[in-house]
Amino acid sequence: MKIILFGAGENARRFIRYSPAAKMVEIVGIVDNDSSKWGNKFEDRYVIEKPEIIRNIEWDIIVVCFHGFDEIFNQLGNEYQIDRKRMICVNELIVPSQSNLGTVRLDCNYDEYYNVNELMPDKVIASNQFEEFYFHRHHRIMNKWWHYFEIYDTFFSKFKNRKIRFLEIGVYKGGSMQMWKEYFGKGSTIVGIDIDDSCKEYEEEHVHICIGSQADREFLEQVSKEYGPFDIILDDGSHQMEHQIITFETLFPLLKENGIFICEDCHCAYSARYGGAYKKEGTFIEYSKNFADYVNSQFIDFDEKDKLPFYADDIKACHYYDSMVVVEKAHRGYSFVTEFSQ
Fold it and tell me: Do 22 and 15 meet the contact criterion of CB atoms below 8 Å apart?
């Protein structure tokens, strides 16, 4: 397959260097709207061209390596009359055997490359209720990394049919509100937070939408007071580093005993777009690394232990996954060891 990469930035560089599919296709051109990049070398192998070369070379697919995917799709359609079926996002070209699918299974040759849109939904074999809902049930738009469904099933299964209270920060198009409601049952209370007033239209029986910012501690406390205490809190909101930390510090102490707090899309901690960078102080990833000390707080020197936050003894465990941090809440109590034989 011959492809053109549209966007000569971080996403294109990451695709060329790390995507298994990049080694199986022929990159015939790299284009960008930024005229200051035209003529420059890219990854020592390509020359960045103006978009007009699309008219003059042979290609099969344009791979858009740009955060504003819709903007580029519209440009290509309006200016060059290119069919939408011949355009894909950079993350949609996959080699299943080398992709993080979680527990999702595919009816295909795992060692070939695919436009993932051509596999959904008919070639998808679901392994749990979340996957079944996402791929095979009618619902509003939902944007989810595939491996998240396995993690949801691992930590949420114990809450099924228990009339729990669930909070998701970031409603988007409302699809996940439907998924949570079906999974946990109609007796549960599902609450969404978003800054977009239009999300109010996704309210229905047992689903409540609160409009406000996750950076507003008083607002978060009010939501918890009105609809909580919550059994599960999932932060899929702004992904801004400061906002994620404010949300955790405000809501984790208000979470129910034996509850779960999840911060999603933590890969943003490595992106300047969200105020992050590798090992940069103040990202949620760096902040959460302190949780390893909190879990072992019983063994820290007395003077140092007194400096820990009051909720340190309530972090039972912290689990790291690709793009996700899962924190279990339970007061650990005083740990002890015995020596025994019988």
Answer: yes
Angle at 262 between CA 182 and CA 140, to 5 degrees: 35
* pLDDT of the residue at 66: 84
Which ranges of the chain have pLDDT less than 50? none
**How would CATH label the architecture of 2-94?**
3-Layer(aba) Sandwich (3.40)
The dotted CATH code for 138-329 is 3.40.50.150
d(CA 241, CA 65): 24
Is the pTM here over 0.70, yes or no? yes
Crossing angle of helices 217-227 and 241-251, in 10° steps, is 40
Which residues are known catalytic residues? Answer: 239
> Are the C-beta atoms of 288 and 258 separated by less than 8 Å?
no
- Residue 301 has a pLDDT of 92
- Which residue type, as a one-letter code, is found at position 300? I
What is the residue-wise DSSP string for 96-154?
GGGS--TT-EESS-TTS-EEGGGTTTTTEE--SHHHHHHHHS--S-----TTHHHHHHH
Q: Which residues of 61-87 are buried (b: 16+ CB within 10 A; e: fewer)?
A: bbbbbbeebeebbebbeeeeebeeeeb
User: If you search the block for the tokens 């809450």, which residue do you land on?
Assistant: 159
Report, in angstroms and rounded to the nearest whole number, the Rg of the chain calculated over CA atoms.
23
How far apart CA 10 and CA 288 sit, in angstroms, is 26
Structure tokens at 89: 């996002």
Backbone angles phi, psi at 184, to 5 degrees: -85, -15
Q: Look at residue 30 in the predicted model and tell me its pLDDT.
A: 97
Q: Which two tokens stand for residue 155?
A: 């930590």
Amino acid at 91: N
Domain ranges of the chain: 2-94, 138-329
105, 120, 132 from 125: Cα distances, Å: 5, 10, 8
